[in-house]
Amino acid sequence: MSLYAVLGHPIDHSLSPRIHEDFAALTGRIVRYERREVRAGGLAQALSALAAEGGLGANITVPLKGEAFALAARPSARALRARAVNTLSWENGVWIGDNTDGLGLVRDLTHNLGWPLRDRRVFLIGAGGAAQGIVGPLLDAGIATLTLFNRTPERARELVAACADARVHRATTGGPAAGPPYDLVINATAAGLSGALPAFPDGLFEGAMAYDLMYGPKARAFLSHARAHGARAAEDGLGMLVEQAAESFRLWHGVRPPTAPVRARLRAWLGGYEL
Ligand code: NAP
After folding, report:
1. In angstroms, what is the span from residue 162 Cα to ligand 1's centroid?
2. Which domains does the chain have, with CATH numbers?
3. How far lies 187's CA from each of 24, 138, 235, 257, 270, in Å?
4. Which of 65, 83, 107, 120 is labelled catalytic?
5. In this predicted model, what pLDDT tens digit does every residue of 65-102 receive, in sequence order?
C-alpha cells in the first residue's frame, strides 16, 4: 500500500487524511495517509524518515512551506513563483516540490462559489507560505489590484517586491493604501488557529466578499467580523482545502478526483457550527 503523509504543527486536526482516503475510495485506489507532527526545523529529518518507510508523497502545512521549498531537490514553476512548497513527491530518489494552494483557492472561488476574479480589487491579509502560494494565481486570474497587509510589515514588503507586478501594493498600518472599496478580502493568516482575529486596517468589508483560508469554527472570528462590518458574503477555506488536495492527488496518482462529494461529506461531518 502506498504511503503518504501531511507534515506540520499543529497537525492533530488536519483533515487531509480523511480527504485523501475519500479521493482514493472514489478513484478505486488503496492508500495509507498519515498525520505527522513536525515543528519548524524538523522537516529534513521527517522527510528522510518518510522516504525510508517507502513514502511517496507529503503535504506540507504550517509552518513548514518555506522549509519545504528550501529542501525540494527540484521545485516546479508554481513552487518557484511562490517560494513555498505544499506538495512533495518522491521521484527517482529525490523530493520534487510543488504548490497547489493557489490553484485550490482560485478554483474554489470561481468554480465552487461563483465569485468571479477578473477586474476585482482584492485585499489580502497575511504574507506567509499560504499567501505566497496564492498571489500569483490570483494575478493570473485577472484581478485589478492586490493590496497586501501583514502583521510583520517586512514580510509584506518582500512579498510585494517578489510579485514584481504594478497591480500589487502594500497597505500601511495607518489605513488601506489602495482603496476602499474592495471586492474581496482574504484572510491568509494563521491567527484563527488560536481563535484570534488578525489586525488589519479599518473599513475593508463594506460591500465586499470575505474569505478565510481557515475552515470550520476557526474561521468564525474573521467571518463573523466581516459580516458584522458589511460583507456581502463570507466563506471559509474548506473548498480550497479540498481543491488543493485534489491537485496533490492528481500529481501523485495521475487522476483528478471529484471534489464536490468530498466537500459535502466534510461539511456535514464538521457540521453543527455557525460560520
Ligand atoms: P505561515 O507560513 O506560518 O504564515 C502565517 C501567517 O499568519 C503570517 O502572515 C503571520 O504573520 C500571520 N499570523 C499568524 N498569527 C497571527 C496573528 N495572531 N495575527 C496576525 N497575523 C498572524 O502559515 P501559512 O502556511 O501561510 O498558513 C496560514 C493559514 O492558512 C493557516 O491557518 C493554514 O491552516 C491556512 N491554510 C489553509 C489552506 C486551505 O486549503 N484552506 C491552505 C493553506 C493554508 P507574521 O508574518 O507577522 O508572523
Report:
1. 18
2. 2-99+242-269 (3.40.50.10860), 102-236 (3.40.50.720)
3. 30, 14, 11, 27, 20
4. 65
5. 999 999 999 999 999 999 999 999 999 999 999 999 99
